[in-house]
UniProtKB/TrEMBL annotation:
The name this protein goes by in its record: Pyrrolo-quinoline quinone
Coiled-coil region(s): none
Domain of life: Bacteria
Domain annotation Pyrrolo-quinoline quinone repeat: ranges: 165-405
Source taxonomy: Bacteria, Pseudomonadati, Planctomycetota, Planctomycetia, Pirellulales
Organism: Rhodopirellula baltica SH28
PANTHER family with a match to the protein in the record: CELL SURFACE PROTEIN (PTHR34512), OUTER MEMBRANE PROTEIN ASSEMBLY FACTOR BAMB (PTHR34512:SF30)
Length: 492
């Protein structure tokens, strides 16, 4: 017998009373209905979810970093009660790594490292109970002393059959790409891509989420000639690419379909862009922004964008609006927006606006590991490399004009929920901000970095943007994932 959830009521029966007349029975039914309504509302059963139930990949399935509102959601999410302390559902202890997990239905999947192994766990989203755990050995040492564990989120892809199952793909810090069954946790196949393509270790290992296009799983690899394995650690300025920036594998078998792009890996993740009615692959690599044909990996064009500093990385995922794309770095190059066209299998990049290289104080946006949110023509983003030179700001996507800045001297990440931004400082406080270009309009602050009688605190660093599904949000600190309730609403 399955235990009943403490906040669920399976049924309430209102009997017909044989010794009462019709008016008395009607009265009893009316009272019973009122009691039922009260109980249902108080237990949350009448609460319709604010958002759709899945978050299948890093930044959600449209790469926007935004939750998709349910039809029952109110017109303004900002109108909900954000000032009250959020209801705490459960907490999950996590191991090494910096990424947050993904959600399919009532299951949360978390990828981390513990005891010299990388580990994937399936968690009951309602109760926080672990359904299964799978792991494999990990041999990795970070050259800068950062945690030994995944830097990126898994990716879920539904199967095109009648099984009702889905695949989940993990890409570990040492380049191990693995396909698993979401239902059973069975390992379907695995490939050690760093070894297969002679990848010279990047500064912080591998940190790019897999992309699914049809029957392909596409990942950033950035391999080199075998003899370059003897280079001194960290000397990426001496490493030569070998045409394996991107690698496509068959989802079912793990067999290589194609390789493409002559560049080294970054900490961005591949995404798609529609140009001229056709889907293309967009990749912000170590040195360039690339456009590839996803059917065969052929390079259609690239544009250079990287700071002239050895120990610099590109990490944000390109922001796309139509055929327009923004890329950004925090070290020296700042941001640039391009209108991308493809004609006769050649991509061209027309500059819309571009920050002055080297003039950090004059740059509109300096994105590091946090990807901006684009909403109604404006970018909302953390700008800066380290805490002392960072802030959260609003930028006009079309012109680069900065509308406002706030939350100075702290790095942050953000997720959008309708007209609200959930801005998570790396220290653990969550700032609920109205998404408006007019001003920094802070609705509430949740001090998740502080313990409460029924909830543990988040620990520094909090480097993953929150995940929002149904009526819940998942927020990660260094050692803990919290599952909290979104504010209640009464759909009409």
């Amino acid at each position: 017998m399955m235990p009943r959830h403490p906040h669920q009521i399976s049924s309430i029966a209102i009997p017909f009373l044989p010794n009462c007349d019709r008016s008395q029975t009607t009265w009893f039914c009316l009272v019973g209905a009122i009691v039922l309504s009260f109980v249902v509302v108080s237990t949350g059963r009448a609460q319709s979810p604010l958002t759709q139930p899945d978050w299948p990949r890093f930044l959600n399935d449209d790469f926007s970093g935004s939750a998709k509102l349910a039809k029952s959601a109110p017109d303004s999410i900002a109108s909900l009660d954000w000032k009250s302390e959020p209801k705490f559902h459960w907490a999950l202890d996590v191991g090494d790594g910096y990424g947050i997990g993904v959600v399919r239905g009532e299951s949360y999947f978390h990828f981390d490292a513990t005891n010299d192994s990388e580990r994937l766990r399936k968690i009951d989203l309602i109760t926080g109970a672990v359904k299964w755990t799978r792991s494999y050995p990990l041999d990795y040492r970070d050259m800068y002393g950062y945690e030994t564990g995944p830097r990126c989120s898994p990716t879920i892809a539904e199967l095109n059959d009648d099984s009702g199952d889905a695949q989940i793909f993990t890409y570990g810090v040492a380049g191990q790409l693995t396909a698993w069954s979401c239902d059973s946790g069975d390992q379907l196949w695995t490939a050690s891509l760093n070894k297969q393509f002679d990848v010279v270790q990047n500064f912080f290992g591998v940190g790019s989420a897999p992309l699914i296009i049809g029957q392909q799983v596409i990942v950033m690899v950035g391999g080199s000639p075998e003899e370059q394995q003897s280079l001194a650690p960290g000397r990426l300025d001496r490493v030569v690419p070998e045409g394996t920036l991107m690698v496509s594998l068959d989802r079912s078998t793990g067999e290589i379909i194609w390789t493409g792009g002559d560049d080294l890996a970054s900490y961005s993740s591949p995404r798609t862009i529609q140009i001229g009615g056709k889907e293309h692959l967009l990749m912000f690599a170590r040195d360039h922004l690339w456009v590839l044909d996803p059917t065969d990996g052929k390079s259609l064009g690239k544009v250079y964008h990287r700071a002239d500093i050895l120990e610099s990385v590109n990490a944000m995922v390109p922001i796309v609006d139509g055929n327009r794309a923004l890329i950004s770095d925090c070290y020296d190059a700042g941001s640039a927006v391009y209108d991308i066209s493809v004609n006769d299998n050649q991509a061209t990049f027309a500059t819309v606006w571009k920050d002055p290289v080297g003039r950090r104080r004059s740059q509109s946006l300096r994105s590091h590991m946090s990807t901006p949110i684009l909403h109604e023509g404006y970018l909302y983003a953390c700008s800066g490399r380290n805490a002392p030179d960072s802030d959260f700001r609003c930028i006009d996507f079309a012109t680069g004009e900065v509308n406002w800045t706030a939350l100075d001297r702290r790095r942050s990440t953000a997720t959008r929920l309708g007209d609200v931004l959930l801005v998570l400082k790396e220290t653990g406080s969550l700032h609920i901000v109205r998404a408006t270009p007019d001003r920094f309009d802070e609705l509430a602050v949740w001090n998740l970095d502080e313990n409460t009688p029924n909830r543990p605190a988040l620990q520094f660093p909090c480097w993953s943007a929150p995940v929002v599904v149904g009526d819940r949000m998942l927020i990660r600190g260094d050692q803990t994932v919290l599952c909290l309730a979104l504010p209640e609403h009464n759909p009409s």
